[in-house]
Specification:
This is Chloroplastic. It comes from Durusdinium trenchii. By secondary structure, the chain is mainly α. It has helices at about 20-30, 30-45. The chain has a domain at about 20-49. It starts with about 20 loop residues before the first helix and ends with a helix. The relative contact order is 0.10.
Length: about 50
Amino acid sequence: MGRRGQKSSGHDERNKGGPVSQLEDLMRRRGVDAAWDALEDVMGAEHSY
């Protein structure tokens, strides 16, 4: 439990309302499909060598 008996959300409390990653920022700006495509591109690039 977090402060004052509240459950912790798992997010960094210093980052109030801002994106926690570039992927989340992309998802908020361009949508879930664009973020998913970007994630697949990154994962594919990691496994290609």
